[in-house]
Amino acid sequence: MRITILGASGLLGQALTREWRGDEVAGFSIEDIDIRDAAAVRALVAKQRPDWIVLAAAYTDVDGCESNRELAFAVNRDGAVNVAEAAKQASAKVLFLSSDYVFDGSKTSPYETTDARNPQSIYGRSKAEAEVRLLEILPDCCIVRTAWMFGMGGKCFPDTILKLAATRPAIDVVNDQRGCPTYSIDLARAIMQLCRQGAAGIVHATNAGDCSWFEFAREIVKAAGLPTAVRPVSTRQMARPAPRPACSVLSAKSLQPYGITLPTWQDALQRYLQERQG
Ligand SMILES: NC(=O)c1ccc[n+]([C@@H]2O[C@H](COP(=O)([O-])OP(=O)(O)OC[C@H]3O[C@@H](n4cnc5c(N)ncnc54)[C@H](OP(=O)(O)O)[C@@H]3O)[C@@H](O)[C@H]2O)c1
To answer: What is the DSSP annotation of the chain?
Structure first.
């Protein structure tokens, strides 16, 4: 297959370009192509003639999206529409990366792909609106919702915690938001399998298991053998510009038909820490 990866220099984009085997893969960063430029996207897709476009490019600064609404919708929704329209013209399939933040977080059991979207943040809204538009343009596209991603080659939660833990005796981390930490490498492998199997529709793909940010941080500090104390605090004590879902645990049921199982987040964290040590 011919694969075009958009957002190739991002956290997931780097894992995808590194992990993908057995196909002809071409990765493009924002320097190569700005997905807001519909004509440039059309020209690139016409030239590449990919079987699949993996759309990992996005404006992912969740708090930044609150104060840069226009940019959030221009990249995350309208950019995705540009890609879908170009793909339609070139008969390419699209796998679009979306987010657990399309949900409001009020559920107390894992979110299924059939649960209603109700985003609370601008980032979540831009992703939710992109999903709706993509399914209109390309009803057979594949939308992969993931969450709490970490990995090499970019900013991520474990990296931040390790840097803080190296210089502070104690750190405060929120304990009333639950989700599914996801290693970029494991997600990249799942995406490769989904494309190979011609996946269509909405799929939830995260590492197995769930935790709060506090529990995640505690595990990171423990696994790294650091003496730093990790203290639980509430979301209210750590006010941020964008509201986050209290519970955005994603159900893995939608991966079952493809025979895909992701390792636990604890296992993924161990492998990330090994990779980080070089
Ligand atoms: N990270 C998470 O926890 C998480 C959770 C759920 C869903 N997702 C989704 O998963 C996908 C990959 O996330 P990620 O963590 O790999 O994000 P990332 O590291 O921020 O990578 C996104 C890439 O897109 C690029 N980009 C931004 N605006 C662009 C534009 N107009 N045209 C082309 N490229 C543009 C960015 O370039 P610059 O860095 O130069 O701006 C960056 O290289 C995204 O769709 C994201 O929404 C991520």
So the answer is: -EEEEESTTSHHHHHHHHH--SSEEEEE-TTT--TT-HHHHHHHHHHH--SEEEE------HHHHHH-HHHHIIIIIIIHHHHHHHHHHHT-EEEEEEEGGGS-S--SSPBPTTSPP---SHHHHHHHHHHHHHHHH-TT-EEEEE-SEE-SSS--HHHHHHHHHHH-SEEEEE-S-EE--EEHHHHHHHHHHHHHTT--EEEE---BS-EEHHHHHHHHHHHTT---EEEEE-GGGG--SS---SB-PBPSGGGGGGT--PPBHHHHHHHHHHHHH-
